[in-house]
Amino acid sequence: MVSRVIPVEPFDLVIFGGTGDLARRKILPGLYRRFWAGQLPEEARIIGASRKPMSDEEFRAFAREAIDAFAIEGAGDAEMVAAFLDKLGYVAVDAKGDGGWPELGARLRDGTVRAFYFSVGPSLFGDLAERLHKYEMATPDCRVVVEKPFGHDLETAQELNGTLAKFFAEKQIYRIDHYLGKETVQNLMAVRFGNILFEPIWNAQYVDHIQITVAETVGVGGRGAYYDKSGAMRDMVQNHLMQLLCLIAMEPPNMFEPDAVRDEKLKVIRALQPVEPHHIVRGQYGQPEQEDGYRAEAGDPRSKTESFVAMRVAVQNWRWAGTPFYLRTGKKLRARESEIAVVFKPTPHSIFGDQAEPQRNVLTIRLQPNEGMELDVTIKEPGPGGMRLIDVPLDMSFAEALAEESASVPEAYERLIMDVIRGNQTLFMRGDEVEAAWAWTDPIIDGWQDRGDVPKPYDIGSNGPDDALALLHRDGRKWRDIKEHRTKK
Ligand code: BG6
User: Taking every annotated instance into account, which residue ranges of this chain make up the domain Glucose-6-phosphate dehydrogenase C-terminal (predicted)?
Assistant: First the structure.
């Protein structure tokens, strides 16, 4: 069991879409893990809601299966699961009608934190919000949680923000980007702003370039229909990669406080230069006719949707003038590896002359697998034969360094749901941030459509299309190898 976990306040959490895939894979197992960790108070209540008629008992059986399948091994025993299931209930509601709403209202308690998780398609947000008001469940400090995709473009994001704003204040709206809940992503802020070491050299004068890679081995699987309308740009870059870029590039906020942090992130997004077409490479996994290729899996033999994108991005401000950010993400690549690499410039003068090539310091922040950080430092290669220099890593794997605590490190969803209950919006996207991100992404996607751009095929299990390599070669640089997992076993 876990130490140092402070239970949150008593709460009523209603999960609309309570029998859906996200509830099954992430929300219910995540809540269970927090219960197991001792973070849910005795008075916590979780109510599943969806169209499907179901009894409390049936919903508990659904949750039990979800916990068995998705909560980590060793997390409690049957007794603990049963104690958690006691907190669960279920009400069938009709999002577009009046059925079930009075029953749902009757389950909620006064004077308790109240949160509504909209784990449903955005087309239902307005209906749900309207009925929460009509049936007087929407208290002034209740919270609503919404999932990505938050819109399909700037216009639809503005509409969604408008719909939510009719019913809720911005301080009540929690837009989830689960990357912000990842342990290492928050550590990025701790490392940058909790150490004197990095911040003085965190700028164009010392940083040659930054690489952000989110590589996946999975394909689109059963999500082809959704994904084919989105592509990597909308599915990953507009949100997850953009958030990583913001945290790496932003100015120090004056406080670790929701609006202070989000103001700084917004400034980064607004400082992004429009991307030139020759600074982006799109790819699609497999050859067009290949059975396990993208087109077959997406169910459209002529699909022009990208499953890979690599780009060179410029942040136009004083700190980053001249330091490119290279972003890439893709599916069915060589390995599952997400990392941010800050590649520093070489020393200005080599005292070792010709015999030693100048090396570079690289700070790598590994998101997954094996969350951790690594700093490449230059030393003398041991042994005789003059002064030859090599890079060796100073490696810190969090799991290793924090062996005891890491067993209880919450997963992204767990942390974010607890933040909703605590009323802390720091790790959630503000409406203007999401709109600014779309305003930058839209012209790129429109450009592809206008030009009839077709993504380059790339081999399954590769590093992506060769053109992505050229993107950096042209600048005299090189992508870090996706294969490398420089972690201790
Ligand atoms: C989701 C995307 O937001 O993030 C998926 O829709 C992607 O396409 C997933 O696979 C990646 O998340 P993680 O946490 O596994 O890196």
Answer: 189-480
Distance in Å, CA 177 to ligand 1 centroid: 10
Q: pTM of this prediction?
A: 0.93
Every domain of the chain with CATH number 3.40.50.720 lies at 11-147
User: pLDDT tens for residues 311-364?
Assistant: 999 999 999 999 999 999 999 999 999 999 999 999 888 888 776 776 789 999
| Atom 2 of ligand 1, nearest CA residue | 235
**Is residue 133 annotated as a catalytic residue, yes or no?**
no
SS3 at position 152: coil
CATH class of 11-147: alpha beta
CA distance 422 to 399: 26
DSSP H or E run through 162: helix 154-167
Q: Which fold has domain 180-486?
A: Dihydrodipicolinate Reductase; domain 2 (3.30.360)
Strands 45-50 and 88-92: parallel
Specify the domain boundaries for CATH 3.30.360.10 within the chain: 180-486
Distance 359 CA to ligand 1 centre (A): 34
